[in-house]
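Appendix B. One record, verbatim.
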Amino acid sequence: MLRICSQSLGCPKTRVDTERLLGSIGPVQTVSTPEEADLVFINTCAFIAPAVQESVQAVLQTIEDMKAMPKAKRPFLAVAGCLPGRYGIRDLKTELPEVDLWLHTDDITTWAKQIAQALRLTYDVPSGRLLSTGPSYAWLKIGEGCRHSCSFCAIPSIRGKYASEPAEALLEEARALVASGVKELVLVAQDVTAYGTDFGRDPRFLFEQLLQITGLERMRLLYLYPAGLTRELLSFLRSAGKPFVPYFDMPLQHAHPDILRRMGRPFAGNPQEAVDRIREFFPEAALRTTLMVGFPGETEEHFQTLAHFVENNRFQHLGVFAYQPEEGTEAAGMPDQLSDSLKEARKNIIMEMQKGISEEILSGYVGQRLEILVDAPSDEWPGLHTGRAWFQAPEVDGLTYISGPGVEPGAMVEADIEEAREYDMVALA
């Protein structure tokens, strides 16, 4: 049995790629350190400069750990994902010759085969997936790449144009996940609303079939471009009902049309229209967005428009990034770049505003009885677990700390909300 020590950096899509590899390479045992492993697999992220630094550091640390081991016991080192996708295998081989195998994003479907061949494995290579998220939820990656050309983003150059994954393969994967006990599927892609558009369909035909899977209790959609949230799609989701969760994650990036146009966003008009459209069909919806402050040319007026937008719309969840110029993007060469100190100051203003909004929204649930999906034990004290209400997505939002009878990983339990914090809740089953 092959012993694998794996690291998956960056977004959930990377995690899915890693899980599919681990489930496709044959009988494996996952281990926690390179010293225990036959294979070290690092799936990297290179979306922004900090992610590149994290990925490079992970590879360098692994190389240092391996150098301390007897040469005969050193594991095989394979590095995959966005780092080779962004910078190319040829240059990385020169810079980091200690890596035994580089795996490009263009070759995801052959990663397992390439590793098996390099290790001279003799068993047949099956297909499958080895979950790393526990029994309660799983990510389902439905597409690769991006069809948009935002001026600040390097993803299309790393991952290529948008390509939907085959529906039959996704349905088979989803049914297997639910049959294994998974209660929540979280659909992810660079733009979930783009599913099927590369072959003349829209995502409704996939969503409809997924929602019919017996045993599925929640289906959540992450990364929804506003232009794709049409009235037709929203009407379909409204009529679908459970297990669809009325949670909408729209990466709006900004609220001022001048900045949206400079960003090259596919909806350079009024993002308020997208918010209002969702709330027309789902008044109870939980809305999440990500915003970028300090984009080149962002004036105080532009920023105040963004701040008022956040204050008026009261997003349940919100993330803020300070713009960073990325090599190879159009925005990196734009004039009127802002200072790092101003960008951080603006980021802090929005986050402080959101902190109060979040706490106020969560306080409204105190005294209510909600269904909580239990994810994992908490380290704080025995019997305490972390879980999530319907409006909390895994890994990106706050948590519900829960204890009481029947609380165990993978369980869906009813609980009384007893306390609200800035981003988390406390509940008793």
